[in-house]
Amino acid sequence: MSNGDPQYLIALAGNPNCGKTTLFNAVTGARQHVGNYPGITVEKKEGFYQLNGSSLRLVDLPGTYSLTAYSLEELVARDFLVHERPQVVMNIVDASNLERNLYLTVQLMELGIPVVLALNMIDAAEGRGIEIDVEELSRRLQIPVIPTVARTGRGKEALLETTAKLAAENHPWNPLHISYGPDIDPALDEMEKEIIAAGLLTEMLPPRWTALKYLEADEQVLKKGRENNPELSKKLESIAHHVTDHLQKTLESYPEAIIADHRYGFISALLKGGVVKQSQKADRLYLSDQIDKILTNRLLGPICMGLILYAVYQFTFNYSQFPVSLVESGFSMLGDYMNSVLPEGLVKSLIVSGIIDGVGGVIGFVPLILFMFFAIAFLEDTGYLARVAYMLDRVFRSFGLHGSSVMAFIISGGIAGGCAVPGVMATRTLRSSRERLATLLTAPFMNCGAKIPVFAMLIAAFFPTNRATMMFLLTMLSWTAALFLAKFIRSTILRGPSTPFLLELPPYRLPTLKGLLIHTWERTWQYIEKAGTIILAISILFWALMTFPALSDSMKSQFEEERQKVLASVPEDLRDALLKGPSEGEELSAESAAARERIHAIDREEAQAALKYSFAGRVGMAMESVSRWCGFDWRTNVALLSGFAAKEIIISTLGTAYSLGEVQTGENVSLSEHLARDPLWNPLKAFAVIVFIMLYAPCFATVTCIIKESGAWKWGLFSMVFNTTIAFLIAVLIYQGGRWLGLGS
């Protein structure tokens, strides 16, 4: 791009769902998702466009409704405009909702940036009987106004040519001046003079705009003002405080509300006099409105929502079973092959148990994630996800969350059997950083598909006559825990106001298959790329913890001697068949079968001894002094430690710890029966273990996603420490409380 051609920085700004991202893709060719859900664009996207010897560097800003820095998206967009100072802002507005969209336009113009207005979706506006006098609107705003249809490319060339021309003219920033009435204007004038005289933040911001932010109590501007000139900042805050008091006494309102009223008044006046006309067609009920009469109805809406979410669940977790089984079979065959060709030893154990099992654990999720993201993309692009958030917002807001949190909860296992990894990634639809963090920290409390086999095994052992009731109870328990712990988190470390639910329900649209596939693949690849590498490393680490230190030679010799004694008791001609197993159609004699079973028992005893001798086993025994408060011995501790890697591993580790050898999730009957007969186990301990597994640290795949999605290691560590602490306290409460009531004996 540095071939001598002039290059101009162009920012694309606009409300969510105005078609901004569609236009950005059409111009730059970038493959970015286009959804209907408000606030879906959370990252800065860049692209280049060559036009008549000049290069346009286009930056797609997050969709925002204003520049008040109320949300993360607004803060990101405003910081970019102030610090990067683009030559032109290409402001995309929804022509069918012009008055509301111009609120951001007015703020951009108050900042002084040269603006080109794109009247996007002009065809939809015309279809609704809305006529816009483009020339008159341009004359009144004194900026270029171009009608466009981003989906078809209509008006794209004219928009780019106008933008490039305006950028080449290199206009200085010229802030728009709006009157805010007799209560605010005098204070604004006074503050503006003080700011100009002291040069407070004038290198970045227009003085009047800075004064407005003091009246709006903008935290970011106040902080910068205090750092730059504490004395003047104190004086400005005093003026703002005086205005606030006056407005409270006279109008029972706040400066920000009065400022917003005057901005909308300015826009309303702007659009009068024939700039916008509506024909009788505007009064008719459109298809989206007709559909909403059912889907958002107070009675029918929740029923439809339950059915649709259930269908998503069924689609994701049923139809993904076959590809999941194919992937698992592939890794199983690979493991068997490597097991047969590699010589016994640490290298074989590392490759089979550490690497192949580790990679398989990650890749095995991929088909499920593909199906889940496809379903979510469909709901987003049709516009239904916004309706779900709207209907559940009131309930979730009472717990400090947002209506959009529900999808993350459901995907994570709200309907038992989900997966927390895509659930955490589904929090991207949340606009507020606090609500998003609270959601991604509590979504793992849901009963994911990896926990279900463990629950099923323990329920079969200790609650055999009430299996369905117990599973339903556990589902309700996970929802209750997640919501109340979210409330706790939002009341303490993530304290702050809830995001107001901006009721923008986009019209229903039929998504394109290409768009759904691109969106699905982009998100899935992020999972493979980001989670895979870290999970592989952690799987190898856990393999090492459960493998080293190995049993001493003398200890191994003892087990080998026992095996040789058993072999010696069998006639020599039967030993080979005993070790290799009977050929097809052949049966071992009773004597050989008993000897073979005895050798397997010695193998299991050796595996248990090796596990107990390993670092993980030693940690498990060291933890007994604490874990005994909830009834867990060292074997349970080791199994729970292995669950940090993946919850499914708990069953196989318990099998090893109880000398059952390799126990797979589909072959857990013997383990279930073994635990039921073990005198150290009882229904009370089993319930304490179930609740602990439900609540304690998420698996590393989920922790990795939490770190990636939150952008900070501390939240991944927090989820491990906080969840485990809560799980321990509740497990102790259950176990000790049960014993106090005389249960568990």
TrEMBL record:
Q: Where does Mg(2+) bind?
A: N25, A26, T28, G29
- The signal peptide here is none
Which InterPro entries does this entry report, sorted A to Z?
Fe2_transport_prot-B, Fe2_transport_prot_B_C, FeoB_Cyto, FeoB_GTPase, G_FEOB_dom, Gate_dom, GTP-bd, P-loop_NTPase
- Annotated FeoB-type G domain ranges read 7-169
**Which parts form a coiled-coil structure per UniProt?**
none
KW Cell membrane (keyword) present: yes
Q: Name one GO cellular component term.
A: plasma membrane
Q: Does the keyword Lipid metabolism apply?
A: no
How does it sit in the bilayer? Multi-pass membrane protein
Q: Which compartment or compartments is the protein found in? A: Cell inner membrane
Sorted keywords for this record are: Cell inner membrane, Cell membrane, GTP-binding, Ion transport, Iron, Iron transport, Magnesium, Membrane, Metal-binding, Nucleotide-binding, Transmembrane, Transmembrane helix, Transport
Residues binding GTP, per UniProt: 14-21, 39-43, 60-63, 120-123
Gene3D superfamilies, sorted:
1.10.287.1770, P-loop containing nucleotide triphosphate hydrolases
Q: Which family does it belong to?
A: Belongs to the TRAFAC class TrmE-Era-EngA-EngB-Septin-like GTPase superfamily. FeoB GTPase (TC 9.A.8) family.
Please identify the protein, giving its name as recorded.
Ferrous iron transport protein B
The organism of origin for this protein: Desulforhabdus amnigena
